[in-house]
Amino acid sequence: MRQDKETCVQRTRLFFYFFEKSNWATGEKAPLDDIVKVKKVSSQAVRYLNNFLTTRLERIATMMELLTEAHDDWAISGKKDYILMETETYDFNNSIKILNKQGFDDSEFIVKVEYARKWGVL
Asked: Where are the domains of the chain?
């Protein structure tokens, strides 16, 4: 998008889901698979969920810190199973570059971008 944004407003929304990633690595499995809708939950499954969530939440917190250091106009809200960061004043490409530069994979977050006209018909 053009930097001067004469005709459109860009709304960037970043979703950081607690339990899911868009791509699981080989040998890696969703932590809730062994807990939800299982007749007998093992203590090992609970420990795996604990380890997964501890690591995942720490990575989400680090991504949030990086983005808020780069830009201070974020609306941040917590939902049942994810954190949502929204802004209309920061280009989404910059957000992705910052996260990727710090070693975060695109599967660790979801970016949705919407454009709205500032005035009239284009």
From this structure: 8-117
> 59 near 69, Cβ under 8 Å?
no
Beta bridge mates, 14 = 85, 111
83: which DSSP letter? E
Query: Cα 45 vs. chain centroid, distance in angstroms?
Result: 25
Residue 14's Cβ-count burial label (10 Å; 0-12, 13-18, 19+) is buried
Tens digits of residue pLDDT in 100-114: 999 998 889 999 998
Look at the block and give the residue holding tokens 């780069």: 70
In 21-56, which positions are buried (b, 16+ CB within 10 angstroms) versus exposed (e)?
beeeeeeeeebeeeeeeeeeeeeebeebbeebeeeb
Just give the CATH number of 8-117.
3.30.70.260
**Total-model pTM:** 0.83
